[in-house]
Design goal:
Elements (H helix, E strand, L loop, with lengths): L6 H16 L4 H9 L7 H18 L4 H17 L4 H19 L6 H54 L7 H6 L3 H4 L4
Helix pairs in contact: 1-3, 1-5, 3-4, 4-6, 5-6
Length: 188
């Protein structure tokens, strides 16, 4: 029955879901993300809207894992670099349950829907786990990038020190722990 929702109901669920997701941002940011429709002026809002639309389509349709992952990635990659905790970053998936129940209203009491709704909500829970896996991969990638940048910066600093001090061979372990030869009681 949920897969047979009218396009009007699907659009209402998507609009409500998008509104819930945008409310997780500060009010001025949420207003901009919602108001600005140009994808070039508002790439974040556009990516979130497109990602939600694709995820909803897959949830209500065939659940193609590749398409679903791509849709979730559109949203999660943004939230992974923002100041969201892991639970806040993937909370948007669970908000779909509320958006659907709000749209269904009194129809949710229909016996046929009462059988289908728990199964559909279980599907949403599995999608949330997928979103969390994507979040972790994105955070790992961010960590790798930051680590690589730190190594490169440290290497440039060491090269500069070597040039300044005439090619002195610096032991990275000694350099990193802050202990000098004098502090250890030995002199070179």
């Amino acid at each position: 029955m949920l897969s047979k929702l009218s396009q009007k109901s699907r659009d209402a669920i998507l609009k409500n879901w998008l509104q819930m997701v945008l409310e997780s941002y500060p009010p001025d940011v949420a207003e901009f993300l919602q108001r600005e429709q140009d994808q070039f002026a508002n790439p974040v809002g556009s990516a979130i809207a497109d990602g939600l639309a694709g995820a909803l389509q897959e949830l209500l349709g065939g659940m193609d894992a590749e398409k679903l992952s791509a849709s979730l990635d559109e949203i999660v990659k943004i939230r992974a670099i923002q100041q969201f905790s892991p639970s806040q970053a993937v909370e948007f998936v669970f908000q779909l349950k509320r958006a659907i129940r709000q749209e269904l209203g009194d129809e949710a009491a229909d016996p046929l829907l009462q059988e289908e709704l728990p199964e559909f909500e279980s599907r949403i829970d599995r999608v949330a786990l997928l979103a969390f896996d994507i979040y972790v991969r994105r955070r790992e990638k961010i960590h790798d990038i930051r680590t690589r940048e730190l190594r490169e910066r440290s290497g440039r600093v060491l090269d500069r020190l070597k040039r300044i001090y005439g090619g002195v061979d610096l032991d990275l372990e000694e350099f990193g722990n802050g202990a000098s030869d004098l502090e250890r009681g030995s002199a070179r």
